[in-house]
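Researcher: Here's the sequence for the chain we discussed earlier.
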Amino acid sequence: MYSEWASLSAQITANSCGAQCFSVLNKFPASAGREVVVSVVKQLGTNLGITQNAEPSHLVKDEEVKWCMDVICFGLSLPLQEHETIKDCVNVYCEWLTALHPQPRISVPKPICEDANLYARQIINHFHNLFVPRQGESADTIKRQAVLCHRVLRTLQQTAQISQQMDRQTWDTLLLFLLAINEILLAPPTVKDDVGDQLCERVLSVLFEVWLLACVRSFPSPSMWKTLQESCSMWRHRVALVDQWNRVNLALTSRLLEFSYGPAFPQLKNADEDGQLIPLGMSNDCVAQTWYRFLRMIGNPTALCSPHIISKSSHFVQWALTHEKGAETHQHPCLQMLPQIFLNAMKGISSQVDAFLGLSKTSLIGLTGGGARNAIGSSSSSSSYIHSSGSTSAGPVQGTGGVAAAPGSGITTATGAGTGSGSGGQAPAPAAAAAPTTPTSTSGPPSASSSINSLPLTSMGAGVELAVARPKCNSILHVFHEWLFEAAHIGGDTWRQNRKKQACEASKRPSSMIMEHRKGSISLSQPNSLNDPASLPPTLTIDKYESGRAEAIGTLCKIFCAKKTGEEILPVYLARFYMALQQCLKITESKECDETLASILLHSGDLFRLDLDGINVLLPGFIAALEIVLPDKDLKLKTQSMAFNRTELRRSAINILLSIMVLPLHYQSLPIRDLSSETSEKMFTFIQLKSRLMNILMNALQVETDAQNTHMLLGGLLLCVQDAVTFEETDLGGGGSGSGATHLHNSGGAQHQHHEANLLSSDNAHALFVRATYLVCHRLISSWKTDLNVSLAALELLSGLARLHIRETDALECKRAVKWICDYICYQCSRPPPAHSKDLHSTIVAAFQCTAAWLMQHPYLLQDKDCLQTVLEVVELGISGTKSQSKSGDIPKFKDEKELKPASMRVRDAAENLLTIILEQVGYFPSECGPESISSLLDELALMKHCNSMVPAAAASTEQAIAKFKYFVTENSTILALLEEPLGNDQDPQPTVTLLIRGPFGRHAWTMQLRHLPRSKSGIKYHAVNPGRPIPMNDISQRPECEQKNFPDGVDKVQPCVADYSIPTIEQIREQYGSGSIRELELILENQSIHEKLAWAEADNSVDSLSHSQECVPPLVCQEFHAARLFLSHFGFLTFETRNPHNPAESLGTPPQRPLIVLDTKSTAFAADLDRLDKLSARTHDTVYVFYVKTGQTSAQQIIGNMVEEPSLTYDPHFAGMLQTLGWPVLVADHSGWTGFAHNSWSLKGTPEEQHQQHQLQQQLQLKSNVPSELNYNGSQRVLYWADVSSEIAFVVPTTWNLRYNSDISDGASIANSDQIGSSNVWARCESDTGTGPAKSKPRNLSLELETATGTGTGTGRTQKEPVPPTRRKGNVTKPTLLAQAPAKIFLVWLESYEDYLNFPLEDLLAYTRTGEELHSLQQPRAADCHVIFVHSLLSGLLRVKLQGPPGRMSFATPLVDGMVLSRRVVGNLVRQTALNISRRRRLDNDNYQPPHVRRRLKVQDIVQKYKMDLSEAELLAHLFQRAI
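Model: Thanks. This is the structure I predict for it:
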């Protein structure tokens, strides 16, 4: 840099020698000189005003002053025993130097005041004598000398700061003097506690601070800079040099960043005193010039690794020659500090790189203090800087840097060479300063106009943020690459060979090293100077420099990880970086993790996510490193000067693992070339690495103890299994993707000799599934059960595993998994009361949901007796709080003998839900209605349309339809609607009843018939045809005549007894009653006989008479039945058996608690209430909003505008593919599930004719709309939908229509949903109006809600201690704080450019994402509560994930993890699972949340309260006999 300029080192030597032999007194004996000095100086000292008042000086002529100065000059070189005299000399000179101040002291002689600069130069030169080390002095006298030196340095520094009249010559003299005293004190080898050691830090700091002042007042000449550089190279064995160098560099860098990148760039925070280093008046141009020159001041820091170079100075040679045992120069003990000095230098460079990247975390207090920084810096928390997008835009950037001129032109003065854009505009990046170093810097400085805010390095939001407008990687590398690459190779295999080449190259190009250093490098190429390592002391072997090397490679990793999307990095840099990494990743035989390895892993979390060209060549190296770090429980860290946080190290390693998990199946049989060997014998294919990756993952999960790390590993595990399963389904199921893949994956018997096939066969999807299930269940039970987040993540993973369709699933494995989850629930429920918390119950609820997922996907498990027993026992435990049989031999305890004490209401609800799923859904889902609905799609209106009694095409209203039904409520939670008319499709006149059952778990329609024979036995015809009259028989049988007798023959012979006379004869009657009565009786008999004769005659004449042979016909079949009574009685609802009023289980209780409650349906509001109940889904519902962000888009309008079809708009083709895998497209008009909008969800659709008309209407609308059809899922006509048995999710791709629609929704449109979120009977506890006092006991069939209503006096007065009393949390509608959270807003954002996530306009896009539910939760969704899943497509075809969400304890759900890299085949599935899990966690964390079936039950109870009829038993039975309309 200064090769054409002369060095001033000769002048320094001359000055210092001159000062020593300058005085005339040197010609006389020392004692005479001393006496003269003592007497003269004592006299001069009294006038200074130190002990008495100051007087004007008596010295008025130049000669007098010069004579006195001659004496003082000699006095300063006296031995230190004359301390007082030397002190007086110092005092006099310090006073006289105030001549340069604006206000000189009164005691300064007049000649000095008149020509201050001339005298000041002499005084400064004379001061040299004071600093010369005296030989053989005691420690005490050395301390005194140091005190005086401090005084002089302070005076000189103060003078330089406040003097207005110092001319250029004086400045040069001052700088040369400072260089000279540094030389005399610091160049010799360090000896502990000599004057050089004591003053080292101080003389250096004064030199640098005064030098910086000179840059403002009188910019030093290139010769001066060259001299400074040469001198510094002689002091490199001093720790303080690098520390002070770092301090000045960082202070200058801080100023440089301010004006180069504007106020929005993260500020480099230095220690306060370091902030004062830069003089106030320094211009931007001057800062840039000074920064670059100071940066290059100590030459190449890697020279510190060569003690031979450092110890080449004459002082070291002199030491070696005088050493009694004869030693080499490089064996001086002070060189033991070189590894630490090298580390400090590297830390300083690393800190500067951090500053350019905007990593403001490193305040580097440790650097300037000389001690090592504690952890590597990753563990220190970072402050993130979020700015508005406009604040960082830069002005026009000039072509040449404002720092360096063209190569070879040399740099003259700041004013001559500065071409920066001045302090007004933005100066270009300092990176352009590297022009003299490499010709590549002509690519221009980086643009500062990018509008990003930050870029994370580690996951889960804990990462450090990179600056928005940071320079390009190339620009930073132009400045630092030479040093960093060399340092990274130190001690590596290529190190020795490369030293020769570098020495040759260094001689060919303008070098930033000084001449002497260059010569040293060249001399290295001589065989003898490569010097055998044996001559080095053991403390200086090359491995002792490991810490500095680790810092260098870590810094390189940071630079390359700062690459932005689409940014180019020069291939030469990439190649050197990969070579360095490969060298550093070499694993030692001891399998220890050394500092270099740890540093690489800590800082390269993003390397595989950035589309770096050719990065995959490092894959085997990184996998080998991960195999050392992750599977080891007690990781051995071989460290010297660095401290590492093991958890952070593991987290960073896991980040790398998550970014390479999918590579083997993505690239399959593609070979990975080895960088070092030319032959192909060491070549791997990607697929060969798969089993190693799986083993790392499983083993890491086995030993991981940190919750966050475990969470990340669990996400990665599901990704692997899912990827393997999907791969086998698609690529292999379809005959393999190409011959290479089929060959590799054919694990049949014939192929087993192939290494690849073996690798894969042990690693197929089924094997992974089994390993993952076993490992996670085992760890969940053994060590994760106490941690909420890890438990949830493990249960989410198990639910995900349950959903996988694996061809050869092992029933035993699935059974074991279910058993383990049930054991987990039992364990959690059995923990002692103090452990029962909200978190514990959240894990139990999640475990119940997980069990449901397994049973739904594997219904055959319930055929297994043991499995069924286990599951139902756990359900019982959840609902009642205990099992019937705690041990297998115990006598079962029946449920009406048990007291209901569930762990909590939430646990009870979850267990109820599982029980219903087992009884109703396992093996039957999806039903005929499809997965859109678990309820029947029939309601009263639909049933009435099929009734015989309805006039066809009559426009019946719901009220009319409801009038045909009878409504009853049973168990206070189920509404029965009974229709006694048979439906029109039934030709069978049997007693028929149609039921609509509305319960907590949905609406179900049943038709029941009373049949006397099963259909199979009753023949084809249900009713026999009239058989006709039988044919008469003509043969008349002969009957013998015989006389009829009333009494036996011998009756007359029997003697009558008294009893025979008890029946009176007719004559006796006549006598008793008179003949009138008898006559009347005879008259009646007579009249009757006449009537009968007339009737017979009339019958004979009529057509119906027997004589007309009228055939008999069976009566008409009865078409009308009162089947409702029949049904209620058969099903036991009318058995009013006598109850014992004293037994609480039998008392009838108040009407709402009876087995059957009648509802009054005449009210007009009844239909609306029923409709509201129907609109409460029995499943949870969520909505995910999908956005597509093109490169550089930051406004909501632009992003929404992407969904408009224009020829100019192009989309990533994989975006549409991802949408299709999220769910299935449904037409909103036909859809009976959640649509993403409250007003048209869960509505019943019309007849096929009506639907056909709507289809035609939609097709016309579709033609008019300008949204591409494959992306048109905005909810106006179509949405993407997915559902399972317990949850629904809609994926909406908003367009401008959504904004219009949202603002147009009238409140009326949503009144039907007013119970969905906010009204009191949903979120508040249902209170009992009938307040049964504590004295009244509760009936058996009362649901738990009413038993435990606190606050209305309906407690049962239990006083036993319970873990958590099972009461529902109450909400109060008047207090918005107690209301539910607004539903979680989940965004899925496809980024073309990854950095755009920083400017994603979340707040503005909320307006496009309303569902209609917000009207009822008094809380509008806020941007801070939104969860965003960013997906960025890499050039390799893989996808990078970034998660952003509120900082809650439970906000991040698996399987997606921040920073994970996915394959396209699994993205839809994993995004959907993550969205569902985020919502589930949010519900678990919400105190006021009630599951859908509880909300439906409360709504039923609300309807009961409004419409119940208080009927006695008799009135109830009478009501049954009344016909419906």
